[in-house]
# Entry
Amino acid sequence: GPRFDREVQATLRGGSVFYFKGRIRRPDGELRWVEFDGKRSRSGKGGAVVLVGTAKNITGREVAEEALRIERGRLAIALTAGQMGVYDWSLKDDSIWWSPETYAVFGVTESGFSPTREALRALVHPDDRQGLWEHLQNCVRNREPFGCEFRIRHPDGGVRWIGNRARIEYDALGAALRCSGVAIDITRQKEIEEALIESRRIAEAANQAKDRFLAVLSHELRTPLTPVLMAVDELEHEETLAPEVRGELAMISRNIRLEIKLIDDLLDLSRITSGKVDLKKEPVDLNRVMLDVCAICRSQIQEKSLKLEFTPGGEDCVIPADAARLHQVLWNLLRNAVKFTPAHGTIRVSVLRDGTDRCVVRVADDGIGIPAEALPRIFNAFEQGEAHITRQFGGLGLGLAISRALVELHGGSIRAESGGTDQGAVFVLELPTGEIGAPPVQSVPVAGAAGPAGRLRVLLVEDHADTARTLRRLLTLRGFEIAGAADVAGAILLAGREEFDLIISDLGLPDGSGCDLMRALRAAGNAVPGIAMSGYGMEEDMKRSAEAGFARHLVKPVGISRLMEAIQELMSGQSGPGESGVGGVQ
# Structure
């Protein structure tokens, strides 16, 4: 082309060396890269001036160099986009090379900054300098890849986070030669991580505040119910009561238990959503638990003149389960059937072993049924199908949601079936049989138990005046000797002055906790057994009371019959449940 001609003419006119690189087109139309290399010469004495040299085909080399240029361009784009820079640090002579992108990562320019060891040290945040250098030395010593994160003081006055990943090369004698790698600006990543940590902290704080609120709310709601429930329990056993008075007492008792159920449901939902439900599995006979539930619901069934048909399964309907939680699920299902079945209706309950790996419980009623559009939502919290259902039948709509969660914790499933409005409903509970372990080991009788109730001396620690007065009266009527205290200090004083066979203590006291009391007594060598009786009923409360030394934890309100049962269990050395929920108010 023209450029080639100009170069040739220039050399012929006065140049001595000729060099040209360019493309030529072959007769077949193919383009090739050619490199010309020659010099000017004469063809003889006084002859014409000519060019003598070589022409070399360099197409392959040029294609490779072009591809390399393209890849370098792409790499530069990727490094810039990823806020990454490449570096090479010679550990022999301490010289450092940075790619243009590395300068950008550190916020400096090639013309204004020289990447030396001292200059880099000045850039690194003072709090990270020593750790960064020690980490590099450890990597060299242990022949490990060099990776770390550190802060730099950015020229704009802020702080940036740099992530570093590098490989260290060694010579034949094992001496470190060079450290080559990438530096990445991870400031945004760190900001996101810190924001997530802060969000998690706020969420955990809110969750803890919610748990504290629910615990205090439970305590404040339950505590006033205790003396009322105990008084009603006692009056119901009075043989001289008129039938109408006995009916009024039954109504009071029923509504107290309904109030307790609402509180329990709220607390259970909180435990479940927080993942704080621990199952205490043991061999459980489904037939026995279902019979117990039927007995508990008998009064409500009789009030509505319902017909209950129960078909038990065989002796092989024994599963590994948490007996208290399973009782709660079955009670929810039967109570639900009783609630939504009109007077003179029928409820059919059956238990059976289905095959070899599961047991099935069916609770069927001929009540108001479930509309097809409500079936998918029936196990959601706060759902009872429609708003008028909630108004008509009451409740928070938590029972089925809690039941499903508890069943799933057992590895089972629960479902609802219904033909629609006024077509009744069927709830089907399936639980795995699994491997049945050994029955629970009976506990050793408590040392120092005083024997019959009449000889037991009890230290009652309760700051709620009505509860303390009612408990003292009812326990005295049953032959106990009672000494009372309203706070931790008073209880410790009494325990140091007199000997007791049993302590019954509230947990929330004016000057501390019932757990503080038990720990103080244990530290003084006093091993008197204790029953915690408190409105605090969260899993953590029960765990803390057990760790402090209480043998039982009863959740208020507690009926006198349940308290007597716990005392008899404890004094006779029988193993019993550590928790009393709805079943503890009987």
